[in-house]
Amino acid sequence: MKLSTVLSGLSVVAGTANAAIHGFNYGAFFNNQAAKQQADFAYEFNRAKNLPNQSGWNAARLYTMVQWGTANDVVSAIPAAINTQTKLLLGLWTSGGSFPNEIKALQKAINQYGTAFTDLVVGISVGSEDLYRQQNNEVGIGPDELLGYINQLRSTIAGTPLQGKPIGHVDTWNMWLDGRNSKVIAALDWVGMDAYPYFQAAFDNRIENAANLFWSAYDQTKAASQGKEVWVTETGWPVSGNQVNGAVPSAQNAQTFWKQVACGLVSRNINTFWYMLQESQWGQANPDFGIYGAGDLGALSPKFDLSC
């Protein structure tokens, strides 16, 4: 066999091994507060894996391990992911005293589903935008409490099949620039960045400048990350809703943002979880970031072209 053939084969293997993770964010309930069931999650996961003019969007970011409306039952997204072979970025909700039940649900999932579950896990997020909410006088937590939860999670998964899975925290990009939160970065394996130029009302956030705002946020987060990998855990542009300063929701603008940001993230091999596949179901979201509108995902077409 020629050396060039061998090297070519090794290159393909290496490229596959280093391929970034691409997926969507998935809430635990619909707009009418009804809990998503296993079939609902499976339907969404399968739609994401078969997008027109796209491929590789086969991962799901979850916000909680707990099935909506229960104390600490395992969220039904877990068996749905197993059945559809969807990769998982787990989320444990930390605000409002919920963390003990999140830990219980995580332990139940490990015991109930074993490696069929844990082999799909690409990472675990301790919390979501807690630092942002705390700083804005909403229900959140500060850096010291968050550190305690990170350490508790590491102790919980020690000796289980989840040991060694990369642990991170998801927050708005500007929280990572705050020196008070540097101790949190030091305790993480990766940094999760949420960035929405649409909401950046203090800036020129017209769609013409949106990509510049996004990549500026990414670069600043990367500079503050202490060498940790930065995962883009939420971003997107709404197809409908209210105008925020210069940011106008529309399918055309959402397509522009997708082509400039989503396609850029894919080409730069950055782990990405887009917001979101379908936001309006059993109620209209405002703003609505969904690639798909309300209705049957199997019958609908995307609101805009997803090709890169």
Describe the structure.
The protein is α/β, with parallel strands linked by helices. The protein has a single domain (21-274), classed as Alpha-Beta Barrel (TIM Barrel). Helix content is 37%, strand content 15%. It has helices at residues 3-17, 38-48, 77-84, 99-113, 115-118, 130-135, 143-157, 182-186, 207-224, 251-267, and strands at residues 22-26, 57-62, 87-92, 121-128, 167-172, 190-194, 229-234, 272-274. Strand 1 (22-26), helix 2 and strand 2 (57-62) form a beta-alpha-beta unit. The chain starts with a helix and ends in a 34-residue tail after the last strand. The model is unreliable at 1-17 (pLDDT under 50).
Quick overview:
This is Probable glucan endo-1,3-beta-glucosidase eglC. With 308 residues, the chain is an alpha/beta fold.
Q: Please provide the ordered H/E string of secondary-structure elements.
A: HEHEHEHHEHHEHEHEHE
Fold-level CATH name: TIM Barrel
Instruction: State the fourth-level CATH superfamily.
Output: Glycosidases
What's the structural domain tally? 1
> Which CATH class is shown?
Alpha Beta
> How many alpha or pi helices?
10
Which sequence of strands runs across the widest sheet? Answer: 7-6-5-4-3-2-1-8
Question: Runs with pLDDT <50, length 5+?
Answer: 1-17
Net shape = globular
What's the pLDDT, averaged over the residues?
95
Distance between the termini: 36 Å
The main β sheet shows up as: 8 strands, parallel
Protein name: Probable glucan endo-1,3-beta-glucosidase eglC
Catalytic activity: Hydrolysis of (1->3)-beta-D-glucosidic linkages in (1->3)-beta-D-glucans
Family: Belongs to the glycosyl hydrolase 17 family.
InterPro entries: Beta-glucan_modifiers, GH, Glyco_hydro_17
